[in-house]
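Standup notes
- DV: blocked on the single-chain target, sequence here:
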Amino acid sequence: MCTRKYTAFNYLFKSFLFMVIVLTRRCNSNCGYCGVYKKDSGRFFVPWLQIDDLLDKIVLLSESYWDNEMRFFWWEPYLERDLLESIITRSISRGFPFRHVINSNWKLLDDEALYFAEKNKVKLILSCNWELSSHILTRWWREEDILKLYGTISKICSKDIDYQINFTILPATVENMIENVRFLYGLWVRNLNILVWLYIWWTEEGIGVLKEKLDELSRLIKTEFSGLAFANHFFSSQIPLFNSEVTIDSDGIAYPNMVILENFFNGYKHKIKLADLKKDKIEFKKDIDNADDENFRICESYIKKIIEDKLGEIAKRDYSANEALTGFFKSI
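- DV (later): unblocked, structure below
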């Protein structure tokens, strides 16, 4: 029986999927994908003998909630593929009932990677927002690369691999949303993680178009898009900036949300951290237990305040866009 005291930390994650996102040293020092200030973070994951210690502490983070997901950003050139494979296989061999999930760059999902995912029941997540002309217009991708992306998606959908395709709706592409969903459906995609892109300039007019398109999509999934599911459907009632996830940054510090990777949190992360994985297990457990009702509410309020201070009216419009998505989920 779990004797751990009942805290707001427990309460937040009690009814929803608990997700632990693990970043590695080289992710933070070499990857240019996100806008976070990069630094050498002290080789937290070296030597490899720390894998068991890492897994033990992730279990403490997720204590008593075994509907859990351990997620990695993986298979980038600098993201230590061998290390992350070792973490996953070790977790499986120790019998931890985590769902192992990989956010991957589609260009690096070669046959070897797909074999590993299928063999070890690893869920794959990759992004494809729209059809060919929109990709070229908004991302300046070469046609040959985009066609390879489509081929990779079709290959994943044909295998015994759990997957989701992140489908992001932007103000610039909302008019073509139905056509873009139709295109992905034609690639045999049946599991979308449909997202409204936050932190950018949605206008009132754009939100109106978004609502119209979501209403149309709600009707079409009963007919043309039969069988189409949405991975984030059950998260629709959650605050978009603070749902049930913990991010272990590459310096070994655990934070209560992936939003801390936004670059405007650089000067504030020390005030919203949950626990330090570099400590021994006794001290680490104390860190978690100190995330009690008052401290956790302060942490949540602090994140929201920073968002509001940094983004002001822009954030309010983004919330309106996200509310449109919430309404869509309720309608289906």
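- Follow-up: The longest strand covers residues 68-74.
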